[in-house]
Fold each of these.
Amino acid sequence: MFKKQEKMAKKTISQLDVKGKRVLVRVDFNVPLDGAGKITDDRRIVSALPTIENIIKRGGKAVLMSHLGRPKSGPEAKFSLQPAAAHLGVLLKKNVKLAPDCVGPAAEAMVAQMADGDVVVLENTRFHKGEEKNDPAFAAQLAKLGDLYCNDAFGTAHRQHASTYGVAEILGSGKRVIGFLIEKELKFLGDALDHPNRPFIAILGGAKVSDKIAVIENLLRKADTILIGGAMAYTFFLAQGKQIGKSLAERDKVNLAADLLAKGEGKLVLPMDTVIASEISDTAVTAVVEGKIPDDKEGLDIGPKTIADYKNRIRSARTVVWNGPMGVFEKKPFQAGTRAVAESLAEITGHGATTIIGGGDSAAAIEQFGLAAKVSHVSTGGGASLEFMEGRGFPCIDILDTV
């Protein structure tokens, strides 16, 4: 776990004198784009604003680094950060320039011309293979563009890349801090896992048990109850000897699921009933079963009895961490379970409970239902929040300065 961070809090950007300094900020502008290159969800950019604004209002020069997508071999126009830079300019109400590259003479010249309070976005760091390899030469080129380093990209804080680790290593102690977004993520997730108000309930969904083995094992030591939903439930059902029809399951992980059920006896709660259909569509004909799922049908959401049970359990909780939807919430016939969880979390938040959404599909769901503002915290890091919940340390955060 993050014992190091519990004992020694990380320095934040507010504790550095940034006036006149070039501050290399690792942000997470890996935002979804539509076919026309328009941003469809700007939450990650909005989440970076407090850190960026703090730097420029105190006379610093904000030099922003990010990746976007998965370019394969060098620059690809569809993965340019141009839409993110343009949108950031609108949000900040000031001119934000995009450098043609993240390293090299053109980027260096643009940064050299910055005045205090300016913002420059460097082009996609993953246009260079040295980024994901944490190549020392590439990290050194990035480090030339900054006097100080700030990591505010929780979504990539579990990846030891040049822009998340190598630059911090080069600039050295006294010059490397976290931003306000990472500070918030560490506080909410850290407090929930290490000092929860009880009862503490974890809700886990999604497709694969294998993706969440370490999470379940860690949470069995910490949570009072773990509610299971999504396709991962069907692997557990197989472990119980139940027939699951065409339902998505990891048949090679049945023994593992059985072990987790044995370890989690009394804590691990499975659905009592299931919404089934023969197809995944907005017009699918559904039915509810409590036992065997017919061979030509698949489970696609938790059923009404399970919804009632889970809502009742959530109502008593003082801390809830949720990662993974209860069903195929993108399709109307299968969104009731996920919606019910989202609404229940919003309700208890209003009564003083702490509710944390662990990024990824759960974050997408709570946004879709218009309830993101009614829970305590929506994480910007899907994979990162999952690894945090496993209890792993993050070298990219460990390397940063402590108070």
Amino acid sequence: MVESVLGFVLEKGHSAVDWSTRPLPEPWLRYAALDVELLVDLRDALEKELDRQGKLDWAQQEFEAIASAPPPEPRKDPWRRTSGMHKVRRRRQLAVVRELWQTRDRIAQRRDVSPGKVLGDAAIVEAALALPANVHALAALNGFGHRMGKRQLEQWQSAVDRAKALTEAQLPQPGQPVAGPPPPRAWADKDPAAAARLSAARAAVSALAEELAMPQENLITPDTVRRVCWEPPAVVDAESVAAALAGHGARAWQVEQVAPVLVEALSAQSP
């Protein structure tokens, strides 16, 4: 953005270094300072452009929404987001992922490092699939190689053993209920009418976004469009669609822009 808006090319020489290094070398400090030196100028230039396009009030509504938003709810079962989880099918294997993930998280917090530097997701999944019987079997798996000391291997094997010792009732369930509408690819089978509404709504939002020269996801989040199309108001009119959009968190400017095109799209698909 600095290059496209202000015409300056920023140095990229230290972007990939380990910024947890202490003390930071002098060249890195200069790089970091130069990297933010133009941000105020960039802000001013973008403000002028937004004002020119008549979108400054929209942006200010977005900023206010971000600044006043409550902190997100703690994620339930965050270990389920381990990369490669789709390979893990059995509940006992899920328990191994959970134990290894939680052990890794405690170690990472104690060391004040990112969890991936303690143990990679791929190694966690590998151990869950293999269910190693002992430290020797664990050491043979990818991610637990010769660089890992005996004590480290023992702590990971202990986590595996804890998972293997759980009763059936203590094992995690294979999946979690998903809130909200199903994935769009399933709509045609589950509810063809909803699929038709979504198709029409997407086309309308896409056309409006192009007209306003902005990304569709900035105009309105795809999730909001899906939710309104999956469960539209009983009576589709400007007031009900506006209320539905606002109920899903759309800002006033988004409701003003999107509600009319959604009303038209939804009405066209009504029986």
